[in-house]
């Protein structure tokens, strides 16, 4: 029986989600909290959930701050982010802070079940909407295998690795160019070359590559 905690400031949403999860085989809601500060108060010896469904935008201690705190203090607790909208920077920030999945709040029950199972058993889950934005679907343009991806990581130049680390922050491409003392056109060239190498089509895809291959600390 996997223990789940819900962190969301919308009471109706939180209560409905708790009722749904409690009706699923193999899951039980341990407790609910309205923000990160309440979650911290509720955690204690023997009271740690296996999974936390974390609202991103909350008053007080929001999902970004709470996920980072959980990753530091309770690294075995896995976080799935919940959001009303797909915002690339929010996705990157949640992943960077330790979230293992990112779901939109209008997801269906089957996808929620899949996400919880994948995160609990395999470590990470991305919903179909985000996945389609990350991976090219053009025929013959497939993602590299895990072995090929590891080789790409090994063969990367130090400059490319530095660029990837900056991508995992909230800085814009223009701000990254300034930090690396390069022109925006050169930065665009780095980005496009990595898109081509890794067969991804978004910044989130590059961040996932960096996290999977431990090129950035989470």
TrEMBL record:
InterPro entries reported for this sequence: CheY-like_superfamily, NreC/VraR/RcsB-like_REC, Sig_transdc_resp-reg_C-effctor, Sig_transdc_resp-reg_receiver, Tscrpt_reg_LuxR_C, WalR-like
Gene3D superfamilies xrefs: 3.40.50.2300
Annotated PROSITE patterns: HTH_LUXR_2, RESPONSE_REGULATORY
Keywords for the protein's UniProt record, in alphabetical order: DNA-binding, Phosphoprotein, Transcription, Transcription regulation
SMART domains reported for this sequence: HTH_LUXR, REC
Domain Response regulatory: 3-120
CDD domains: LuxR_C_like (cd06170), REC_NarL-like (cd17535)
Domain HTH luxR-type residues, every copy: 149-214
Residue positions where 4-aspartylphosphate is found in the record: 55
Designated name of the protein: Response regulator transcription factor
Source taxonomy: Bacteria, Pseudomonadati, Bacteroidota, Chitinophagia, Chitinophagales
């Amino acid at each position: 029986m996997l223990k789940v905690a819900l962190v969301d400031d919308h009471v109706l949403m939180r209560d409905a989600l708790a009722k749904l999860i409690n009706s699923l085989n193999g899951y039980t809601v341990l407790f609910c909290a309205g923000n990160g500060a309440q979650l911290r108060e509720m955690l204690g010896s023997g009271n740690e959930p296996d999974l936390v469904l974390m609202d991103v935008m909350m008053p007080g201690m929001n999902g970004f701050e709470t996920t980072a705190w959980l990753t530091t203090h309770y690294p075995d607790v896995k976080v799935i982010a919940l959001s009303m909208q797909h915002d690339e920077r929010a996705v990157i920030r949640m992943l960077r802070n330790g979230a293992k999945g990112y779901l939109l709040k209008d997801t269906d029950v089957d996808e929620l079940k899949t996400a919880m199972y994948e995160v609990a058993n395999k470590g990470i889950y991305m919903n179909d909407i985000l996945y389609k934005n990350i991976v090219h679907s053009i025929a013959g343009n497939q993602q590299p295998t895990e072995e090929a991806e590891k080789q790409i990581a090994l063969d990367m130049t130090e400059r490319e690795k530095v660029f990837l680390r900056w991508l995992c922050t909230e800085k814009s491409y223009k701000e990254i160019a300034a930090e690396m003392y390069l022109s925006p056109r050169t930065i665009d060239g780095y980005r496009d070359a990595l898109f081509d190498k890794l067969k991804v089509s978004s910044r989130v895809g590059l961040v996932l590559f960096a996290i999977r291959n431990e090129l950035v600390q989470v």
